[in-house]
Amino acid sequence: MVEDRPPGVPRDDGLRVPPRGEVAEDLVLDVAVAVDVHRRVPVVEHGDVLDDRPRRQLSPRSAPRALGGRGVPLSPSLYSEAGRSRREGAARRSRRPVRAALLLPLLRSNVSPTADRPRRAEPAAAPRREDGSAVPWRAVAVVGVGILVQAALLAESLANPRPILGDEVRYWDRALAIAGGSPPTPDFVWPPLYSWLLSLSAFLFGPARLPVQLLQSALFVAAGLLLRSLLLRAPLPALSADAGLLLLLLDLEAAAFCQYFWPEIAFLFLVLLGAWGLLAPERERRGVLFLSGVAFGAALLTKSLLSVFVPVLVAAAALRAPGEPVRRRLRAAAAFAAGLALLPVPVAAWNGVHHGEFVVSSSGLFNLWVGLNDPPSTRDYNSVPSAEMDDYLASGSRPAERNAALVPRIRALVASRGLFPTLAGQLKKQYFRLFNRSSYFTDRLPGGPLAPRSAEATRGARLMRVAAYATYAAVLVLGAVGLALGTRRELLRSWALPYLWVGLQLGLFLLLHVKTRYRIGLLPALLAFAALAVARIPGEVAGGRPSGRLVAGLALAGGALFLAFHDLAP
């Protein structure tokens, strides 16, 4: 606060102190404060450098403390400069610097105790819409549509019950055994969390499927809201964030997994929840990072694919606050790593003590073997893994024994084909299998290859299939365009995680067993790039001529559409 002395009475340092409340507005007429959190920016008044110390970015919460507190932190020479400013009169007031005008309410709140000023700086208000409301009605409407889609899919599932197949059978068998009090010996092929979730439902409600379907529908909608929040933090406009939310909730191929019994929906929710905490704006709160690590640890217990991405996540936790001291970054990374280890480490320790293997699951080599032997057919989901699984489990009781028996077979296969012919063969089939337009949802519709033979194709089934294809095509096109529209700075910094996530998964799926449902894990990144495309396409075509990045994005989108629809019947 400015010292309350009579006008003209000198302070201890010899400077004249103006009366209370007279200084603030005149000071800000002369001072334009350049604030930058990343680099040293001098503060300049009339061409003279007053202070070139690094200044932290001021927020509405921190500004009163930084500018007021025990006194306005300006050099003493500015007080005499304030007297000169008052003498120059109102002509100078018309040339008030913009940034100084922005600081005026903050300085006034600490210097001038008038009755009409606020007692403290107000927090940033939510962006107001044209109707004056802060409620995101467009997002509310999108969520409502998504709930209607889930209700329709659930009603169809109840009206036409389907048999569970493939891995669904294994998840349910293990869940019922756990709920019955006799958990089976771990096979170390599938992570255990999804079976635990099913067993909890079976314990509370019996073998009914409806509670699990309702829970997965709620998790899917919640995942959409987390995605929207992340896009707003990117930061992207609300329209782009709502577009990403809409594409997720209307993606019938993804939404239908709420009615199936694979861990895709739980994994999607946990990954987005972990990312939401990892990228939270409260950089000083290590508790948020700890909870983010817990969410990612739970995702590790759902699908082991995330394990290869763990070093990237820990590095992101340490580097998320540029300019922070190294010690604080290390504490942040430690908090995240502690949360990440909270669930998987006890599971691995239990397996080590009781079953001789300190792992959660270990099926990477098996997936590599199956991926090398998968047929080119995009709809042959299970022929190879079904034939190979029994032999793999019979080759040993522990993962180390099974992998020891499998490694020579993999080496012999690659040696017989040759390394480069093997990679070329994988390129010819893997991404067609991953990105094909067909999915479990469309193939199970009447007239599809997985539908009951007695079910005839209906007009409604055809419309649902076309709607699923159209939504998926929109995700592919916008995601590919957005992937190309990112700047170099975004690639290396703010958008590095989605770029790395896409690149890592594409690299793994070049070799590992792959099917269309595995692309659910790619959806968060693809939808983020789709929202980026919605935000930037208007600017890319504003001059009447598309930019080079937009042309590259359209070419990438054409390649993605070819992967998805190359075998579409005429």
What does the model show?
It is a single chain. With 570 residues, the protein is mainly α. The chain has a domain at 24-111. 60% of the residues lie in helices and 1% in strands. It has helices at 24-30, 63-67, 77-88, 98-111, 137-159, 167-179, 193-205, 210-233, 238-249, 252-255, 264-278, 286-300, 310-319, 326-341, 344-355, 364-373, 383-394, 399-417, 419-435, 440-444, 459-485, 488-492, 496-509, 523-540, 548-565, and strands spanning 43-45, 48-51. A two-stranded antiparallel ribbon has the order 1-2. The longest helix has 27 residues, at 459-485. The protein is globular. The chain starts with 23 loop residues before the first helix and ends in a 5-residue tail after the last helix.
Output the keywords.
single chain, 570 residues, mainly alpha, two-stranded antiparallel sheet, 25 helices, 2 strands, globular
Net shape: globular
Provide the helix percentage.
55-70%
Count of alpha/pi helices: 25
Largest sheet descriptor: 2 strands, antiparallel
The strand count comes to 2
**Through-space gap between termini:** 78 Å
Furnish the topology, listing elements before pairings.
Blueprint: H1 24-30, E1 43-45, E2 48-51, H2 63-67, H3 77-88, H4 98-111, H5 137-159, H6 167-179, H7 193-205, H8 210-233, H9 238-249, H10 252-255, H11 264-278, H12 286-300, H13 310-319, H14 326-341, H15 344-355, H16 364-373, H17 383-394, H18 399-417, H19 419-435, H20 440-444, H21 459-485, H22 488-492, H23 496-509, H24 523-540, H25 548-565
Antiparallel strand pairs: 1-2
Helix pairs in contact: 1-3, 1-4, 5-8, 5-9, 6-7, 8-9, 8-11, 9-24, 11-12, 12-14, 13-14, 16-17, 16-18, 21-24, 21-25, 23-24
